[in-house]
Amino acid sequence: MKLVYIILLIVALQVQFAFASRYDAYFLDRMAGQNKETSQLAELAQVKSKNLELKRVARKILRKNHAEIKIIEEWRNSYFQDVPDFWVMPSKNLPELSKLENTDFDLQFLDKMIDVFQKGRIRLLDAQNKAEKPFLKSYTKKRLVEFDREIKLLISLKKKIMGES
What we know:
Layout: H1 2-48, H2 52-79, H3 93-98, H4 102-130, H5 134-164
């Protein structure tokens, strides 16, 4: 009987580890997807916007995202190579946004970016509770502060642009 209990305990721990690894890998895939989406939006802003401040913010987001994507890919390859990649839905924002011009583009761009960052913030909060790897928990804390700062900056820029138009 004792052997059965030990076997069941080992199986339960393996299932728990497998679930935790899958969640951590899923979280990284989703964050990489978000970084890629915001990078695409920021690249579009570099071409379409005439607002220099918005272009500056977009450049900053691009630099940060490229660094983040490298870190996420390193973690994914180092710790979760045995977990299949999770499919991340491509952005639906680009086609509709690319048709807009001038202030209409700028305001819609900012709305889309704010939305993506707010969804990412929810994802980070969720990962604080569910992630198993300690480095992911500290990563989420750091990124939450950065996301809050980005959201405030984007909202402030939107108000400024709205006041100019």
